[in-house]
Amino acid sequence: MSGVTSYRRIGIIGSGRVASALGLALGGLSVEPLALWSRDPARCSGAAALIGRAVAAQRMAHIAKTCDLIILAVSDDALEQSIFDLAAVGGTAAPFVFHVSGRTGTAILSPLAARGWLTAAIHPAMTFTGDPQSEVRQMIGARFAVTGSTDEANAAAHAIVAHLGGVPVDVADEHRPLYHAALCHGANHLVTLIVGSCEALAAAGVHDPAALLAPLARAALDNSVGKGMAGLSGPLLRGDRETIAGHIFALDKDCPALLPSYRAMGLATLDALQRLNGREEPSPCRPMLEMGR
Asked: Which residues of 91-105 are buried (b: 16+ CB within 10 A; e: fewer)?
């Protein structure tokens, strides 16, 4: 990790999973104990205890007036109001402030930038499930989308990411929604996909669906990341119409909740193959997937 300059005091607004993990990871940069504030005092106290060298602040104003690094680790929908509240109580100092939302960049931080504060967006491209100790380790080598409002803010954001052991990836303000949509499609929807497959395997009488599926899914993930669509295998690639018809019949009979997503993903796969191969003629599997939609 880098030897980024220490901050007098780091303040975190928020008390959820990301707040706890970042507090634990960045605690060594804060000369004074970290200060946390959230709208839920009990949860805030719990997060401070989990981090260790941290205290729960009674008011947001305490964060604004005593901290020279402030992290906004709140939900996306709560971010704008938190920024306005922070700007309203801001002290005379000019701290570095960043939020960890994936969908927005620095434009949302303009009320703070107007006060002369350095502002940035730093989004870790990883999942947080409530185990901050392991998540601190998982941040090492992870990518972080960085958007700074100025060159100075961008440099400060890069230094934070370096301290976390991550790799900064600059994403322009106007591209943040597309960036975040891509992550949600590739990660959040993957969870839905795997859970649905496990449910179908359970319906097929498989005792431990996850154990059966995991090696195949991991291999498919590695192939897709390394080879793109060239990593695809299976009946859609081969054009096995009757196999797809059998899938649809079985899903409709025994696992109907999975059928709409199976059809949608199948058609998306055929569309991608058609773009890749530049073919005009449709796959023989397409009518089966479109039937009954």
From this structure: eeeebbbbbbbbbbb
